[in-house]
């Protein structure tokens, strides 16, 4: 069973939305386990404090290394060793390659920060991989952890239908953005479904979708487009 442990000051935020839909069913099917742990349970002083003022001054509070370390210890004693990640806007950007890597392993231990941050020494001592879900600032790592877990869980064997997982595989390092989708009614508010999609010509449909995917990727994500054209070029070079 893929095992997610989440270290947080708000354990009641988990599984949250992941208790519903695809991830919720997988949870009930015991494909994965969601183990939310209260960092405050590892506080040692009589105020049960988990944070303190920043050395050097400044606004906000910093999570104490000793308390975080004890919480990590408790989480990691359970089951097999798992990679430990710290959700922070300072981290490397989460992408599908990292999601694939994590979902292929035994699970994750996720540290969710609140306040201004976490003492740097426990990040270093524990070798935590710092991961961000995007260039914006959330009020804590919990929502980022939910996003990461959602992305990992849908890739676990038995969670998605065979069709979608096969499609997922086709998105290699050179993924394009998806082509637009349409369904009935064929006419809606004066807008028509593109006729090619009603033609029944599978090859034509595939060609149209491919062209649309390329167009939208070029327009919206020149970074992905550059990577895509790069891998296409090297694939051709290898093929000779
Ligand atoms: N915590 C606060 N903002 C975050 C972000 N963008 N990604 C991951 N963790 C965060």
UniProtKB/TrEMBL annotation:
Q: Which Pfam families does the annotation name?
A: tRNA_m1G_MT
Q: Where in the cell is it found?
A: Cytoplasm
Please state every residue range assigned to the domain named tRNA methyltransferase TRMD/TRM10-type.
5-226
SUPFAM superfamilies referenced in this protein's UniProt entry, alphabetically? alpha/beta knot
From what superkingdom does this record's organism come?
Bacteria
- The entry's keywords: Cytoplasm, Methyltransferase, S-adenosyl-L-methionine, Transferase, tRNA processing
Q: Which GO terms describe its cellular component?
A: cytosol
Residues annotated as binding S-adenosyl-L-methionine are: 113, 133-138
Its BP terms in the Gene Ontology are: tRNA N1-guanine methylation
> Which molecular function GO terms apply here?
tRNA (guanine(37)-N1)-methyltransferase activity
Provide the reaction this enzyme catalyses. guanosine(37) in tRNA + S-adenosyl-L-methionine = N(1)-methylguanosine(37) in tRNA + S-adenosyl-L-homocysteine + H(+)
Record's InterPro entries?
Answer: Alpha/beta_knot_MTases, tRNA_m1G_MeTrfase_C_sf, tRNA_m1G_MeTrfase_TrmD, tRNA_m1G_MTases_N, tRNA_MeTrfase_TRMD/TRM10
EC nos: 2.1.1.228
What the record says about family reads: Belongs to the RNA methyltransferase TrmD family.
Question: What does this protein's UniProt record list under function?
Answer: Specifically methylates guanosine-37 in various tRNAs.
Q: How does it assemble?
A: Homodimer.
* PANTHER family assigned: TRNA (GUANINE-N(1)-)-METHYLTRANSFERASE
Listed name of the protein: tRNA (guanine-N(1)-)-methyltransferase
